[in-house]
Design brief:
Number of strands: 5
Strand order of the largest sheet: 3-4-2-1-5
Largest sheet: 5 strands, mixed
Structural class: alpha+beta
Strand content: 25-35%
Order of helices and strands: EEHEEHE
Radius of gyration: 13 Å
Shape: globular
Distance between the termini: 22 Å
Number of helices: 2
Helix content: 25-40%
Amino acid sequence: MIILDVFEGSGGIARFAVRGHAGFGKPGQDIVCAAVSALVYNAINSAERLLGARLDASDRRDELTCSVRPEADRPEVQLLLRSMVLGVEQIADLYPRHVQIRKHASAGPE
């Protein structure tokens, strides 16, 4: 199962982490995993390349984490991140055994 943890701060999404495998299809052919990955990578890349906002993103083998730097915390960045969460929520609605979203009220420990 893919798990997306979203940590909200006072100004919006402070950071998020995505981990796991959807297990919907064979590796390399899993459409659920591909959809979530596309949304997550697009949000990060769009914030950085289109808005010039530097995010602290780290992609390890089974976990991707991303924190919004204070200087990058702008309404446009928040819109991209909220759009990503909305897209993953829609996938989770269609594939609830393969994708889960957990929202946390505070940014929590890094």
